[in-house]
Specification:
Elements: H1 2-5, E1 12-15, H2 21-24, H3 42-45, E2 57-58, E3 61-62, E4 65-66, E5 68-69, E6 72-77, H4 78-84, H5 92-105, E7 112-113, H6 119-124, E8 133-136, E9 139-141, H7 147-162, E10 165-166, H8 173-178, E11 185-189, H9 192-200, E12 208-211, E13 231-234, H10 241-253, H11 255-258, E14 264-265, H12 268-281, H13 289-296, H14 310-323, H15 328-345, E15 349-350
Parallel strand pairs: 7-10, 9-15
Antiparallel strand pairs: 1-13, 2-3, 4-13, 5-14, 6-11, 6-12, 8-9
Length: 351
Amino acid sequence: MFDRTGSGWPDVAFSANVNDGTWASQGKSPYAAPVNQDVISPSTLGGFADGALNPCTFNGNTYCLRNDLAQNVLWYNKSLMDKFGYKVPTTWEEYQALGEKVAKEHSGYLVGTAGDAWSPEVYFWASQCTASTATGAKKVKVDLQDAKCTRMAKLLDTLIAKGSVSKDTVFSAGFIKNQASKVLMLPGPSWFGQVLFNSTFNTPEGQIAAASPLKFEGDAKNYTGNVGGGLWFVSSHSKNLKASADLVTWMTTSDAYQGTAGTYPAYKRAAVTWLANQEKTGYFAEDVSPVFKESAELIWPGWSATQYSQEAIYSSTVVPALNSGKTLTETLDTWQTAITNKAKSLGYTVN
């Protein structure tokens, strides 16, 4: 609307949608200013976690600053794991084996969920699945039959069939009432600690801990995905460019603001302060700092920000199929078609 009227653009904008840089950076006169071009200092831009600014970077320019990260880790209930005599897995193969063991020895307890809208970002992103890999401007590769996609689908299918991975979402009333206390492990974003386990599940303090993202045996390293993380934009139309840049810099890097925020800061120095404050709460069974710092640098770059929402497509395509009794493996083609059609409708070339 502002583009059509030629006035009224806000000097600064915040978005909770990590994909919004895909449109704010486009067009003859993009809304977002390229902040790497004498708007934000190189030293500030260099202070963000590795890969944190990927959703802001297009055609060699950076069009936003990342407010926070939502890097995935392996959450687990240390009290239950100790009680059952289980060891925290370090690979997806160990995770599957433990999930099968849990189903047999402690029926009803869970090691994950596949019914959340962000399940692709937790499991398939970590598996380096090419669900949407940008290969150029408005070009994406979508190949859900790639081995790194099918391996995760098969793993989840096995545990869903055994009953140790739920097809529900963790925020449903039924899950919170009946299953929250039986979550043994749960791969998920860094904000799960306080938002999900503490505030939603009301899991007592001293029980929940976080472990490093898992890897498949044979992979060179462990990667992880990301569920969220807001963006700050400076308007290319702003007549107050320096003040706007100062505000956005303060909002994303200041210890005074980010150090006590609800989610993990994308700026590394602020993240140190934030983690120290988390430790002071006394909520976690172990210090989460090493795991959070490590996982912040392990987000796989091949899962690209796009103008379409993977979460919306998964929710409308895969979740109903799972609830009707189909497996993830046999739904991959339908899921791929849905991604492809949505991408093409928005002008992407898909290969």
